[in-house]
Every structure is written in C-alpha cells, then in structure tokens.
Design brief:
208 residues, TATA-Binding Protein, 7 helices, 6-stranded antiparallel β-sheet, 4-stranded mixed β-sheet, alpha+beta
Length: 208
C-alpha cells in the first residue's frame, strides 16, 4: 500500500480483512485512500476489490491481490512489486532494508502483531463457541492490558468479536468454522501491551 501510494501515486481504495493491521487505516488517512474492511478470507476480499475498484487487497496471512493485475492472491506479482519498492527506496538513499522498515514505521505507526490458536477437544467445542459468541456479546471485557475498552465490533460473519482500547491496540477473538479451535489475534502499540492483550484474550476464551 505504501509502495502504490508513495511511489506509484495511486489513490484507489484498499481492501483488508478484519484481522489485518491498523497500519492500513493510518496510511489511508495519510494519503487520502479509502480502506474497506471485510470478513476473513480472500473470498470476501476479491469481490469487494471488484466492487470498489480497489488497487489492492490484503489478508492477514500474507496474501495480496492487485487491481491492476488480478483481484486474487498472486505471490510472484507481489514479490516483483516489493523488489521495485526496494530499488526506488535505495534511489532515495534509504537503504538497507532495515532503514526502509524504520522509515515505514515512522509513517505507518507502531505494530506489534500476534495470533494464537487455542485448540479444544471436538466434544467440548460447541460449549466453547457458545461461551465466546454468546457470553462475550452480553459481557464484553471492560478493560484490556490495564486500559479501558473503548469500542467493540461483532464480526459480520457472527463468529467472533473485535475489541479496541484507547491507544489503538485491539483484540480479535474468532471461532474456526472448520476446526475445533479459537483464534486470538492482537495488534498493539508495544510488545508489552501485545503480551498483556493476548493473555487476556486466552483467558476470555478459556472462561477464566
């Protein structure tokens, strides 16, 4: 997204999954780019790219699609654009790659991301899902990492919730539809906050 906006001058929309980084939103604010959020999976991202005329779609697992190419994941094409980014940044005197990353985080803000998969016996999974999807709707956490929860978002696919705190960090709890496991995601402003939020998310899932 940074490459397309900064080096190619593009301002078309971007589509990301709900478990993706908030850096996309911050870059959108910087460059005047609309950022659209979808449920998890490229089966949602691709159609939204077509609908919005997006220049890029991205999911948490590292899949990228580009409107000028295909509204579907293409790792080879993404790698070619990454190499072009490196060349253009080096021409600016921003090199090696570690310097590019430092510059990127100066623009896009901090991001400390983690995902934990919590496995259960299949016989107990229905009870776990009922606890997470029903109880958390009625009894959302008031605090995370010692900070007040400032907002909550039920997922449109009815399989989890996303919670936000004031510093921009968030927690996402999502039930798998294919395996007996709960996925806990966070993106935080520091490693310490990340670890605290992940611990809280695991505790919520386990009913602690």
């Amino acid at each position: 997204m940074y490459y397309l906006a900064e080096h190619r001058g593009l301002r078309d929309p971007v589509v990301i999954s709900v478990n993706n980084t908030s850096m996309a939103t911050r870059l959108g604010e910087r460059y005047g780019i609309a950022v659209h959020e979808t449920p998890v999976g490229f089966k949602y991202i691709g159609p939204r790219m077509i609908e919005t005329g997006a220049m890029m779609g991205a999911e948490e697992s590292g899949g990228f699609g580009f409107g000028m190419h295909l509204p579907e994941r293409d790792g080879v094409y993404a790698d070619l654009l990454l190499l072009d980014l490196f060349l253009r940044e080096r021409e600016r005197g921003i090199w090696p790659v570690s310097k590019i990353m430092e510059r990127f985080h100066e623009i896009a803000g901090p991001s400390f991301y983690q995902r934990v998969d919590i496995h259960f016996q299949r016989s107990e999974y229905d009870g776990v899902k009922r606890h997470v999807l029903v109880d958390l709707l009625e009894k959302a956490p008031a605090t995370l990492a010692g900070q007040a929860v400032t907002g909550s978002q039920p997922l449109s696919t009815n399989d989890g919730f996303k919670f936000y705190i004031a510093d921009g960090s968030w927690l996402l709890v999502r039930a798998s539809g294919t395996e007996p496991l709960m996925r806990v995601y966070t993106e935080a402003t520091s490693p310490e906050v990340r670890e605290a939020i992940i611990a809280s998310g695991e505790q919520l899932v386990r009913g602690g």
